[in-house]
TrEMBL record:
It catalyses: a 2'-deoxyadenosine in DNA + S-adenosyl-L-methionine = an N(6)-methyl-2'-deoxyadenosine in DNA + S-adenosyl-L-homocysteine + H(+). Gene3D superfamilies: Adenine-specific Methyltransferase, Domain 2, Vaccinia Virus protein VP39. This is site-specific DNA-methyltransferase (adenine-specific). GO terms for biological process: DNA restriction-modification system; methylation; mismatch repair. Its EC number is 2.1.1.72. The keyword Cell inner membrane does not apply. It comes from Halorarum halophilum. It comes from the Archaea. The keyword Transferase applies. Belongs to the N(4)/N(6)-methyltransferase family. InterPro entries: Ade_MeTrfase_dom_2, DNA_methylase_N6_adenine_CS, M_m6A_EcoRV, MeTrfase_D12, SAM-dependent_MTases_sf. Keywords: Methyltransferase, S-adenosyl-L-methionine, Transferase.
């Protein structure tokens, strides 16, 4: 079982057992259109399917890690690790941003360099965050690791192995509407903030807002209708939003789609009335008897 090699906001390592309990035992190909750190993918090692993220630097990293020459990238990252200092971190950040401006015309060795820099910056920056300014420059400051542990060759080898046979893409998630076929599994993990309130703007970012959430829901339902197995992580707030869609409500009422609440928090709503809302949910098309693992075993 491989592990994620990058720290990523919204990473799903903590809830892997719950995710496993929401998917079936057998599916043809596996697809993950909002890949990030890919916690579920590395856990499952599906061997067939596609992974995608809109972030080009991230997908360049995975495509170099997948390639035959991935060890060149590891060697470069080791060198960066050996030279780590505050001054060096900011030099690397500048170099990483300089390469970004050459996207589309990068030589292979520059792509390897960019991948090594991403690994180094990811392990040394503040909280392993990935954030860009308005001009698309990575702008996270250095973290407080005096002796960061950056390169784990065994872990990278396992991730390299897990990536074999997988299509690596850098598109908008909507590609999945054409890519997935009946009996495939698609796991969606869009950007969201945990929470269950009704002030939706709080939970969805400018880059993935309320309209994007609704559009995504309908794509998920379309795929389900075509016989594709679907699972999605989201906030409780998104589920509240979805409930306003008749099509969604019908699926839930007909027990053709299931909501698994993850974290429940008791709160008082504006009318002073108690309600229990889950901060985070998993939506799945897989009925309990077909799931890979039973939730009741946790
Ligand atoms: C919550 S993170 C995924 C975390 C991942 N499951 C993990 O375990 O690390 C969401 C990802 O979606 C990507 N993303 C945002 N908008 C997107 C879009 N329109 N199409 C594809 N990917 C997108 C972001 O770059 C981010 O990496």
């Amino acid at each position: 079982m491989a592990k994620p090699v990058l720290k990523w906001a919204g990473g799903k390592r903590q809830i892997l057992h719950k995710l496993r309990a929401c998917i079936s035992q057998d599916y043809d190909a596996y697809h993950e259109p909002f890949f990030g750190g890919g916690a579920l993918f590395f856990d499952l090692e599906p061997g067939n399917g596609s992974i995608n993220d809109i972030n080009p630097r991230l997908m360049n990293f995975y495509s170099i890690l997948q390639s035959e020459d991935w060890r060149d990238m590891v060697e470069e990252a080791k060198e960066l690790e050996e030279n780590h200092s505050e001054e060096f971190y900011y030099e690397c950040r500048d170099e990483f941003n300089r390469l970004r401006n050459q996207r589309g015309q990068m030589r292979y060795d520059e792509r390897v360099k960019e991948a090594a820099l991403l690994l180094y910056l990811n392990r040394t920056c503040f909280n392993g965050l990935y954030r860009e300014n308005q001009s698309g420059e990575f702008n996270v400051p250095i973290g407080s690791y005096s002796n960061p542990d950056i390169v784990h060759p065994d872990q990278l080898q396992e991730a390299h192995d897990a990536l074999q046979g997988i299509d690596i893409m850098n598109k908008d998630y909507r590609y999945i509407g054409h890519e997935a076929e009946a009996e495939d599994l698609v796991y969606f993990d869009p950007p969201y903030q945990k929470g269950s309130g009704e002030n939706f703007a709080e939970y969805f970012s400018d880059t993935f807002d309320v309209d994007d959430q609704i559009e995504l829901l309908h794509l998920v339902l379309d795929l389900h209708e075509q016989g594709v197995e679907v699972a999605m992580s989201n906030s409780g707030a998104a589920e509240r939003l979805y409930k306003k869609e008749d099509r969604y409500q019908e699926y839930i009422e007909n027990e053709d789609l299931f909501v698994v609440p993850l974290e429940a928090r008791r709160s008082i709503n504006s009318d002073g009335e108690n309600r229990t809302g889950a901060d985070e949910i998993i939506l799945t098309s897989v009925p309990e008897q077909k799931r890979k693992e039973s939730l009741s075993s946790y």
